[in-house]
Specification:
single chain, about 160 residues, alpha+beta, Immunoglobulin-like, 2 domains, five-stranded antiparallel beta sheet, four-stranded antiparallel beta sheet, 1 helix, binds copper (II) ion
């Protein structure tokens, strides 16, 4: 009786193992399919797609964002806005003027690109200008970000496509 009881336990254990193996196999197949969906096929607007973050049509127009005390208007020229060429950055502040000129940090969404700051000088009437260069990302991605800091007033983030 004891022996058959032990055998029964072993048998049940083996069945559980086989069933467990089946579940693992199902999980593996499921994860493989999920991997194919997330990595094998580009999904428009999916998390991690930087073009979903674009909030500024800098190739055609200037872009505006609101801070509590002023509007921040960004323009970059000449157009089309190209990487690896001298660019003129202009920030217009329509409201309250800051204690010091604004500056721009260029980068890419979700990527560490190294420091690239464009200092700006006031040319009067709330207009601030400076020159800088947008580099070419080795990844080939073309979505860039200009983080505009207005001292003591806040930051505005402009995300746009650049021509390579
Ligand atoms: Cu990059």
């Amino acid at each position: 009786m004891l022996t058959s009881g032990v055998k029964k336990v072993i048998h049940q254990g083996r069945m559980a193992f086989l069933q467990g193996g089946g579940v693992s196999r199902m999980l593996f197949i499921g994860m493989f399919l999920l991997f194919m969906v997330t990595h094998g096929v580009p999904v428009q607007g999916a998390e991690g797609d930087p073009s979903a973050l674009v909030n500024c049509d800098i190739q055609h127009t200037s872009c505006t964002q609101e801070l509590s005390d002023t509007q921040v208007i960004l323009d970059i020229s000449p157009k089309p806005v190209k990487a690896m060429s001298d660019l003129k950055f202009r920030i217009i502040l329509t409201g309250k003027q800051p204690v010091a000129p604004p500056y721009i940090d260029l980068g890419m969404p979700g990527m560490k690109m190294g420091p690239n700051r464009v200092p700006l000088k006031s040319v009067g009437n709330g207009v601030h200008e400076g020159t800088g260069i947008i580099v070419r990302c080795p990844s080939g991605k073309k979505v860039w970000k200009a983080m505009v800091t207005v001292p003591n007033m806040g930051t505005a983030e402009f995300i746009f496509d650049v021509i390579y």
